[in-house]
Write a structure and sequence with these properties.
The N terminus is likely disordered. Helix 3 packs parallel to helix 7 and helix 8 packs antiparallel against helix 9. By secondary structure, the chain is mainly alpha-helical. The longest helix is centred in the last third of the chain and has 23 residues. It contains 12 helices and no strands.
């Protein structure tokens, strides 16, 4: 699956921000839907405008997608209000210190992996999609949190190393998003990409054994979501941000994308 990533994508055509799971063509397509009041956009707009319960990561992504299409600063602000409760200990700014991912999940490493990996991806999407609105200080705070969280998930969290379980697949897509979001903006982006390369190599070994037919190790429930979803999301991130077409690199994708 990640065969192409055994060669550093630094030589690939890394696109400017926003690049993680969006392209200029996709944004223009969504703008066209909005301009003609397409029912699909109308439903999305209604969802974004509805009161949000809690600080849901899906809401962050929704607000930022709306921001990319409309340019409305209010959507960015709503997303930032949610994001800063996850990266700052005091929920507001770095004066109280940065908030470790394990503290968010009250010391539960399983939740810090399978839920925290998704949160890592959400924060990376926010950084990438909101890059033009972020102050230099906000950018550095987000990069610090993304790097520290990726280090924990990849190196310090045993559950994050279970590549073909929901824990590991969630972490893989999160590290992928962080790597492609930060690469080129900060020297730490190269280390993030190296961690993603390592995860990709290990995932490929597993897919060569169980990814060529039949159910995954977790069956057709967890094996489809979040495990397969995490692996497919990581490949989509590489495709949109760096032009690395991993979807043709392994039978796994041809089988699961149809499913």
């Amino acid at each position: 699956v990640f065969l192409a990533l055994t060669v550093s994508p630094l030589g690939a055509a890394l696109r400017p921000h926003p690049r993680v799971e969006v392209t200029p063509a996709l944004i223009e397509q969504l703008r066209s839907l909005r301009e003609r009041n397409d029912p699909t956009w109308a439903r999305f707009s209604k969802l974004v405008a509805a009161p949000q319960r809690g600080q849901d990561g899906n809401a962050v992504v929704a607000h930022m997608l709306d921001y990319l299409v409309t340019g409305e600063r209010a959507q960015f602000d709503r997303a930032w209000d949610a994001v800063r409760t996850k990266i700052y200990r005091n929920g507001t700014d770095r004066s109280g210190g940065m908030l470790p991912i394990l503290e968010i999940y009250k010391g539960n490493k399983h939740e810090a992996a399978f839920q925290g990996g998704v949160l890592l991806g959400v924060i990376a999407h926010f950084y990438d999609w909101g890059y033009g609105q972020l102050s230099p200080e906000q950018r550095q705070d987000l990069i610090e949190w993304l790097n520290t969280t990726s280090r924990f998930e990849h190196i310090e969290c045993p559950e994050g190393g279970l590549y073909m379980r929901n824990d590991g697949a969630s972490v893989t897509q999160g590290v992928a998003a962080a790597a492609y979001a930060v690469l080129g903006d900060d020297p730490r982006g190269e280390q993030l990409m190296a961690w993603f390369n390592e995860r990709g190599a290990q995932t490929l070994k597993a897919l060569d054994i169980i990814g060529k037919g039949g159910a995954s190790g977790e069956g057709n429930a967890y094996g489809a979501s979040p495990t397969a979803l995490g692996i497919i999301t990581a490949a989509n991130i590489a495709y949109t941000a760096g032009g690395e077409d991993l979807f043709t690199s392994h039978p796994y994708f041809r089988q699961r994308l149809v499913f």
